[in-house]
Specification:
Blueprint lengths: L3 E2 L10 E8 L7 E2 L3 E8 L2 E5 L2 E5 L4 E4 L5 E5 L8 E8 L11 H9 L4 E3 L1 H14 L4 H17 L3 E3 L12 H16 L6 H7 L4 H12 L3 H19 L4 H7 L5 H12 L3 H8 L1
Parallel strand pairs: 1-3
Antiparallel strand pairs: 2-9, 4-7, 4-9, 5-6, 5-8, 7-10, 10-11
Helix pairs in contact: 1-3, 2-3, 5-6, 7-10
Amino acid sequence: MRAAVEVLFPDFGSSVRVCTRNEEEFAHRLHYHAEYELNLIVQSQGTRYVGDSVQEYGPGDLVLVGSNLPHTWHSAPGKKREKHRAVFLQFREADYFDWPELIHIRRLLEVSQHGIQFHGKTRDLADVMMQELATLTGVPRLTKFLALLDLLSRGKEYTQLSSLQIGPRGKSVAQRRIDRACKFIHENYRRPIEQRELADQLGMTPAAFSRLFRRVTGLTFVHYVNQVRVKHACTLLAESSESISQISLDSGFENLSNFNRQFLRWKKVTPRNFRQQYQ
């Protein structure tokens, strides 16, 4: 299965993004992105794919995935009404990783291009720190984040997963084109975007761009744009008190009915129910 590119929001508002997954299942969606990702399985079991590594996973599975390394966690069928839960951090390349005091963290990130699974006491301590991170913001979050990377970089209890190192230099021309397209979408999704506009920027015909975009991302151009807008709306619904109609406009939807329809399609709940469940 071809890995789909995923460009995360450029305006995290933080050096590290802390996310949780609480879902009926973890679908098999092989993907990669420029950000590093540290993934902790809280409650789930199934098959983990990282690069060319395919292994079973269970609760407590802690893996650091390098930049642009394809990965996914695919849950096995479990008991009905039993949620699959995970906590994960996403962060970008940063200049401060080159500071002399953090050189060991730089080495950790280099090894993560193969994917790293952590075990034992290192994993247990990191588990606690990751869940604390979810409650912090600002400088305390950044401080705890660096302490977490310091712990992982000094630990000896780990396994390298993938035999292949996959990084930005290994990208094809097609992948680089779609990376540019996805970055443009994430920076401009609040306004109308036409497929022809992007095709012109990439020096392609609309038809050729459409075929390439679907082949690389696994989605049509329109579906991808709507997915980005819905993801942004989820953040606003969870973190703001704005009205749903205003959130619809802020997320790039021109009318409320289309927003409700697209949100239900991608999240399987209405915007109002999503906000109530999150709260």
